[in-house]
Amino acid sequence: MKNEILKFLKQDYLNNLDLIYALEHGAKIKYYNQAGIMLKFEDIYMLAFKDEKIAEQLLKQIDKCSMLAIHNDKYFNIINQKWRLNKEIVAYQYGYLKKYVRIINNPIVEIKEIGREYFEFIKENYSTPIEEAYLLERIDANVFVGAFIEKQIVGFAGRHIEGTIGFVEVIKEYRRLGIAQALEQYLMQKLIAENEIIYLQVEVDNYPSMRLHEKLGYERSDDIITWYM
């Protein structure tokens, strides 16, 4: 059944990158037909439906839920009333579909993989509130890279549990030097070598990030992904 679903999802590859990644990395299939799909990946329920009534019925059947990622969301009232969850992120999905990365050399910065020795630096400089346990789990999963100038760390990037590139941060005095781009390109090259899906999500009003990722060669999906937490 998994292969059948993957074949179906790949017919609309860009819009379904998150679902494909989840399914390829152990997500549980909670519901599937050609009207829609619901997966559970770790603690995340992921839904994409053309038939709103089926989606509503499935949401009502879920007992405990702390996080949802929904394509083209129309279910705020049900979700908010049942679990008191709110819309935290509303984003376009961006996928990198090429098999190579054109690296733009940045002579001032060195990018390399980093681990727990930089936990405090990441925690103190990441601009989005985050649970320490989750951050440690991601660091231990070896998904973080750091940017160094003269052996001093000035930025970092990594991957979230659902596979998106994220955690991108450059400390203030080193911004506008192409460091964020260098971090992402390093990760992209690494993921291509590992034959992994390369995708991320950009909030619908973050126009500078949209321009950056389109410059890097990403393509934008039509679907809008809403995260409830």
From TrEMBL:
Residues 109-229 form the N-acetyltransferase domain. One of its GO terms (molecular function) is acyltransferase activity, transferring groups other than amino-acyl groups. It holds the Pfam family Acetyltransf_1. InterPro entries: Acyl-CoA_N-acyltransferase (IPR053225), Acyl_CoA_acyltransferase (IPR016181), GNAT_dom (IPR000182). SUPFAM superfamilies: Acyl-CoA N-acyltransferases (Nat) (SSF55729). This is GNAT family N-acetyltransferase. It comes from Thomasclavelia ramosa.
